[in-house]
């Protein structure tokens, strides 16, 4: 028996998908970049993982990745969760790329539900995994109708949902998948990132690609494109803030996860972005060492 | 001399080889309420949908005088313009309020939708306008955050009217607005409608099979039978001195109380 671990890469075409499929997806990506926020249909393929685990993101990554790329995969901000680890290993095997957990070192970052805390730079590509690409879906179930609404930019109904939220809860209660207006034209679902990350989408130097595998849609936000979170004049968009700071690195600026750590209900707040948190801890440790040397 | 608000010429709508409306022409003047009566299947709802741009007729034209852009042919506008017209200068009141309302959101949001669609982005202002309109259609302000699913039939119908009138339309299409309501609720709704039409100088086209409603609300009447207008004239004239055999039958079949 051949060692499947060794040969898995060569048994498939480079980056798993065949070349025709990759060309088709690239065409969809180009169109999506040309019309920021517009959902481009594409012929989504079956991938070796279930829908909802990132099939859309994986297909985009497979179509844009090359041997000199460095890939980072995050799931809810973490580099070490099952989904992130297996997607990273998948591409290391079938696309022969270097992988990293460091945001600065990556050229392609595939992400589920977070935007890294470390600011992105030009030349980087952020690939989002999207479960429901249509922001109007919960308000208007008919696909023909939502397409018309987008085509004619009739977005009153989206505002109605925000109105309803204020009427019921006294504030806009939507905390993730918060709808945005891209380039003053299309309303877009930013995938279920916390609204904390919405400001990072605005005029970001990196290219943002969004892939929905089940719904077979690709959309994009090109670098430096304005992305505005919808709101009311008297109820402006706000991001969440925590009274606590990260228990590991002390950050007060990052998105914090709340963990219950024992049966007594003791809570701990830690950064959701593991790379950002570890880097800060590392810096603090080095700084402490330097202090120690200086004091000797 | 003013020009008509809506001018319909030779409108014909067919479904396959069945003609639903045949060669219908009329003018609607500003501030006028026109009733279309006739039995079920006579083509009155089809005609209304053609006028409102919801169905495309095979022949004929529907000319509407817009507030800003002069006279336009409703069926030669782009879809974007037509939909804009429909949610700013027009209103459409359905027989079944559930079709005309967004049942999943509160009454306030239902009234506010048109405002938000044309760019209102101030929650407080939208809510204030919604409250004003709830008051006008005699719905208790405490119900503003209730969903229309918990409203009675009459309240839903009044909410639908408020939702349509909030953008100050000039022309309102009504398809059996009082159908399916009990008589006392009907009377209140009619009273309300008459007041609103008067107060906001609305023009309206009202489809009904209830001659009592027609008598109370409309200035002019068209009687339809099998897709044809068989008689037209001032409401009182038509109802008091019907000329066509069908109209005579229709007037004669009103149940005396």
UniProtKB/TrEMBL annotation, chain A:
Q: What class of enzyme is it?
A: lyase
Catalytic activity as recorded in UniProt: alpha-D-ribose 1-methylphosphonate 5-phosphate + AH2 + S-adenosyl-L-methionine = alpha-D-ribose 1,2-cyclic phosphate 5-phosphate + methane + 5'-deoxyadenosine + L-methionine + A + H(+)
Q: What is its EC number?
A: 4.7.1.1
Molecular function (GO) terms for this protein are:
4 iron, 4 sulfur cluster binding; alpha-D-ribose 1-methylphosphonate 5-phosphate C-P-lyase activity; metal ion binding
Return any one Pfam family short name.
PhnJ
For this UniProt record, give its keywords in alphabetical order, as a comma-separated list: 4Fe-4S, Iron, Iron-sulfur, Lyase, Metal-binding, S-adenosyl-L-methionine
Cite the InterPro entries for this sequence: PhnJ
Q: Please name the GO terms of the biological process aspect recorded for this protein, alphabetically.
A: organic phosphonate catabolic process
Q: Which family does it belong to?
A: Belongs to the PhnJ family.
Give the function comment from the record. Answer: Catalyzes the breakage of the C-P bond in alpha-D-ribose 1-methylphosphonate 5-phosphate (PRPn) forming alpha-D-ribose.
From the Swiss-Prot or TrEMBL record, give the protein name.
Answer: Alpha-D-ribose 1-methylphosphonate 5-phosphate C-P lyase
Report the source organism: Enhydrobacter aerosaccus
UniProtKB/TrEMBL annotation, chain B:
Q: What Pfam family is a match for this entry?
A: ABC_tran
Cite the ABC transporter domain residue spans from the record: 6-251
Is the ATP-binding keyword given for this protein? yes
The alphabetical list of record keywords is: ATP-binding, Nucleotide-binding
Task: Give a yes or no for keyword Endoplasmic reticulum in this entry.
Answer: no
Entry's Gene Ontology molecular function annotations = ATP binding; ATP hydrolysis activity
The UniProt entry, under SUPFAM superfamilies, shows:
P-loop containing nucleoside triphosphate hydrolases
Which GO terms of type biological process are on file? organic phosphonate catabolic process
Which NCBIfam families does the UniProt record give? CP_lyasePhnK (TIGR02323)
Similarity section: Belongs to the ABC transporter superfamily.
What name does UniProt use for this protein?
Answer: Putative phosphonate transport system ATP-binding protein
Q: Which species is this record about?
A: Enhydrobacter aerosaccus
């Amino acid at each position: 028996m051949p060692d499947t671990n060794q040969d898995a890469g060569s048994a498939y075409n480079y980056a798993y998908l065949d070349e025709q499929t990759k060309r088709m997806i690239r065409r969809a990506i180009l169109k999506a970049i040309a019309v920021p926020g517009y959902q481009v249909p594409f012929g989504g393929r079956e991938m070796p993982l279930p829908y909802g685990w990132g099939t859309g993101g994986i297909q985009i990554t497979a179509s844009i990745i090359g041997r000199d790329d460095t890939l980072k995969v995050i799931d809810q901000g973490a580099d070490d969760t099952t989904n992130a680890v297996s997607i990273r290993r998948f591409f290391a095997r079938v696309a022969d790329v270097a992988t990293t957990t460091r945001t600065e070192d990556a050229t392609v970052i595939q992400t589920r539900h977070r935007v890294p805390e470390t600011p992105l730079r030009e030349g980087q590509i952020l690939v989002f995994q999207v479960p429901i690409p249509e922001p109007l879906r919960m308000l208007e179930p008919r696909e023909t109708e939502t397409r018309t609404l987008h085509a004619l930019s009739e977005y009153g109904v989206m505002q109605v949902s925000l109105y309803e939220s204020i009427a019921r809860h006294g504030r806009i209660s939507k905390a993730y998948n918060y709808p945005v207006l891209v380039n003053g034209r299309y309303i877009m679902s930013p995938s279920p990132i916390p609204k904390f990350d919405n400001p990072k989408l605005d005029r970001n130097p990196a290219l943002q690609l969004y892939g929905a595998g089940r719904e077979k849609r690709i959309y994009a936000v090109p670098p430096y494109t304005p992305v505005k979170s919808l709101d009311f004049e008297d109820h402006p968009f706000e991001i969440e803030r925590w009274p606590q700071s990260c228990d590991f690195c002390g950050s007060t600026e990052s998105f914090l996860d709340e963990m219950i750590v024992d049966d007594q209900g003791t809570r701990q707040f830690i950064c959701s972005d593991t790379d950002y948190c570890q880097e800060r801890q590392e810096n603090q440790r080095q700084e402490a060492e330097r202090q120690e040397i200086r004091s000797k | 001399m003013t020009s008509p608000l809506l001018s319909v010429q030779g409108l014909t709508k067919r479904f396959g080889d069945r003609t639903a409306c045949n060669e219908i022409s009329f003018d609607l003047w500003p501030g006028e309420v026109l009733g279309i009566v006739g039995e079920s299947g006579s083509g009155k709802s089809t005609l209304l949908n053609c006028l409102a741009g919801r169905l495309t007729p095979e022949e004929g034209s529907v000319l509407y005088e817009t507030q800003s852009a002069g006279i336009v042919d409703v069926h030669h506008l782009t879809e974007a313009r037509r939909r804009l017209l429909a949610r700013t200068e027009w209103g459409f009141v359905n027989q079944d309020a559930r079709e005309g309302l967004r049942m999943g959101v509160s009454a306030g949001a239902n009234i506010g939708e048109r405002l938000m669609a044309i760019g209102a982005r101030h929650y407080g202002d939208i809510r204030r306008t919604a409250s004003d309109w709830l008051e006008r259609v005699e719905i208790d302000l405490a119900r503003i955050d209730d969903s229309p699913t918990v409203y009675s039939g009459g309240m839903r119908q009044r909410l639908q009217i408020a939702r349509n009138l909030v953008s100050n339309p000039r022309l309102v299409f009504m398809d059996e607005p009082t159908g399916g309501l009990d008589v006392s609720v009907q009377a209140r709704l009619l009273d309300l409608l008459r007041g609103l039409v008067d107060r906001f100088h609305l023009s309206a086209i009202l489809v009904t099979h209830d001659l009592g409603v027609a008598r109370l609300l409309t200035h002019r009447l068209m009687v339809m039978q099998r897709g044809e207008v068989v008689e037209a004239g001032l409401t009182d004239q038509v109802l008091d001195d019907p000329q066509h055999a069908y109209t005579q039958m229709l007037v004669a079949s009103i149940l005396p109380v």
